[in-house]
């Protein structure tokens, strides 16, 4: 059964896009057909993590939202070579435009919001997806609120940081009011000095929401500077192991 999952953080810099891309790879490694939509229209870039160059992109999600092409034209098979086996899945990406004029146009002029809801459903059906992961813009803009209203699950990504904690509480309350069926919390950049059990207790007490996982802080992830999928290059690293655990949980919940 298809699972549509949006990922949101109240602030930028949480590592959300890096998490989404690595989870897509982990799910595909388990034989799943995975779609990824870059809904961070004001500041796109998840295509870079998949090694996709701008020259390879003929049409973008922006073009679809403006009615200039169909959703199939913006859905690219970007499955890493290491995952191209008979028992593996597939990753499709609908990238947002990196062109400054397109970004300004989408921010200033917008688009017909019905195109977004239609595109999400059409992409899932056209590509026979098991999972559709939506990488949203940080905070609560129009696209994020629309995505929340359409998904089965919402993953709130945050760091163990006071500002993140307070902002995420706002997002959690809004998503509850929108009737999101399942809301999960995923912590990233958790320092080794932090007691995991105490952190879990604090998060549970603060949000009354299930915890999807605790991703450890890893200098190696930052040193890669979004040039590749970390979990594919370093599969035995604790970050990669936790990514696989989170992916399995998403399959089960």
Explain what this protein looks like in three dimensions:
The protein is an alpha/beta fold and 253 residues long. It has one domain: Rossmann fold (3-Layer(aba) Sandwich). It has 11 helices and 8 strands. The protein has helices spanning 16-29, 46-49, 61-65, 100-108, 113-126, 142-150, 162-177, 196-207, 219-224, 230-233, 238-252; strands at 3-8, 33-39, 76-77, 90-94, 131-136, 153-158, 182-190, 211-216.
Would you spell out the secondary-structure blueprint of this structure?
Elements: E1 3-8, H1 16-29, E2 33-39, H2 46-49, H3 61-65, E3 76-77, E4 90-94, H4 100-108, H5 113-126, E5 131-136, H6 142-150, E6 153-158, H7 162-177, E7 182-190, H8 196-207, E8 211-216, H9 219-224, H10 230-233, H11 238-252
Parallel strand pairs: 1-5, 1-6, 2-4, 2-5, 6-7, 7-8
Antiparallel strand pairs: 3-4
Helix pairs in contact: 1-11
């Amino acid at each position: 059964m298809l699972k549509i999952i949006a990922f949101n953080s109240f602030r930028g810099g949480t590592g959300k896009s890096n998490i989404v891309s690595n989870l897509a790879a982990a799910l595909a490694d388990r034989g799943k057909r995975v779609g990824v939509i870059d809904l961070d229209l004001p500041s796109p870039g998840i295509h870079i993590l998949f090694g996709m160059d701008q020259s390879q992109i003929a049409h973008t999600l922006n073009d679809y939202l403006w009615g200039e092409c169909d959703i199939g034209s913006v859905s690219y098979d970007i499955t890493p070579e290491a995952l191209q086996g008979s028992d593996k899945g597939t990753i499709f990406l609908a990238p947002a435009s990196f062109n400054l004029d397109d970004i300004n146009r989408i921010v200033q002029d917008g688009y017909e919001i019905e195109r977004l809801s239609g595109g999400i459903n059409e992409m899932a059906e056209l590509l026979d997806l098991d999972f559709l992961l939506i990488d949203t813009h940080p905070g609560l803009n129009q696209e994020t609120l629309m995505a929340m209203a359409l998904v089965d699950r919402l993953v709130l990504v945050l760091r163990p940081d006071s500002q993140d904690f307070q902002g995420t509480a706002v997002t959690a309350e809004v998503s509850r009011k929108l009737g999101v069926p399942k809301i999960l919390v995923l912590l990233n950049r958790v320092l080794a000095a932090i007691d995991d059990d105490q952190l879990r207790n604090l998060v549970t007490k603060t949000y009354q929401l299930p915890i999807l996982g605790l991703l450890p802080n890893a200098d190696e992830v930052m040193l890669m500077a979004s040039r590749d999928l970390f979990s594919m290059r370093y599969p035995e690293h604790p970050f990669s192991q936790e990514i696989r655990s989170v992916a399995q949980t998403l399959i089960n919940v």
